[in-house]
Write a structure and sequence with these properties.
four-stranded antiparallel beta sheet; binds S-adenosylmethionine; about 250 residues; alpha/beta; 2 domains; seven-stranded mixed beta sheet; globular
Length: about 250
């Protein structure tokens, strides 16, 4: 099956991706993520779906894990390849819902809400099947993503602002009929306005569990963060770990 995925991480985004001062780029967040993933890899090789500029892949490789990545953005991968340590990381250019990377893995992981970049249920289901196909028996598939914020939407409203500054505004738009959403960014710089919109498909943890089950993976272990914090009705994100049965 071939999915038509637009590249929303072209040169314009890649050029400043690593300059972000957001929480996901804080050293403590990155180190906690890499520590947890290294433990889950258990000494075996890891495959990152949507490896990007190597925010997580490089610190994971520094922990002695052999990392390979899949990504469709040549611009993001070029940033990764320019970094020290990247020579140890192989990258397959392609759609992580369907692309095949060489070898088999103890860990396949997909972080930073990137499962939502697959904007149809078919593509997300295919991604779980693809992750399972890359796993060794006993290996695990890990997703880090947000819990859909629908509880914050008052009746009749479909938009949630998440940043308002003097020259930049950002908001999410939800369509609860289709599970389509988008993150939208408006900026005014030197008197000129710009607008960028990235489409996502949101999915509840339970729907992801069903996709895992369809791919032959076990029921999940689920945390609300990388240090194994409990997942509760108030959690705003989850780290979910599904296992491929041991042979
Ligand atoms: C939010 S960035 C995350 C990058 C990196 N994993 C990180 O944590 O910093 C999402 C990445 O996924 C890639 N991506 C999105 N959809 C994809 C797809 N269908 N196939 C392959 N890569 C994809 C983008 O090009 C981008 O590099």
């Amino acid at each position: 099956m071939v999915f038509d995925h637009e590249d929303h991480f072209g040169e314009d985004v890649a050029a400043t991706y690593d300059d972000s001062t957001g929480a996901m780029f804080a050293p403590a967040t990155v180190e906690a993520t890499a520590d947890a993933l290294a433990r889950l890899a258990g000494g075996g090789p890891a495959l990152e779906l949507g490896i990007g500029t190597g925010r997580i892949a490089l610190p994971l490789a520094r922990r002695g894990v052999a990392v390979h990545g899949i990504d469709l953005s040549e611009a993001m991968v070029a940033r990764l390849r320019a970094k020290p340590g990247a020579e140890a990381i192989g990258v397959t250019l392609g759609d992580f819902a369907t692309a095949r990377a060489p070898g088999s893995y103890a860990l396949v992981y997909l972080v930073f809400n990137t499962i939502g970049n697959l904007t149809s249920q078919d593509a997300q289901v295919a991604c779980f099947a693809n992750a399972a196909a890359h796993l060794r028996p006993g290996g695990c598939f890990v997703i880090e993503t947000g819990v859909p914020e629908l509880r914050r939407l008052p009746p009749g409203q479909s938009m949630l602002p998440f940043h308002a500054g003097p020259t930049q505004w950002a908001f999410d738009v939800y369509d609860t009929a289709t599970q389509a959403m988008s993150s939208n960014y408006v900026e005014v710089a030197e008197g000129r306005g710009s607008f960028r919109s990235i489409p996502f498909r949101y999915a509840w943890p339970a729907e992801l569990d069903l996709m895992a089950r369809m791919a032959g993976l076990s029921p999940p272990q689920r945390w609300s963060g990388w240090s194994g914090e409990p997942f509760t009705h108030e959690s705003t994100q989850h780290v979910s770990i599904w296992r491929k049965p041991a042979a």
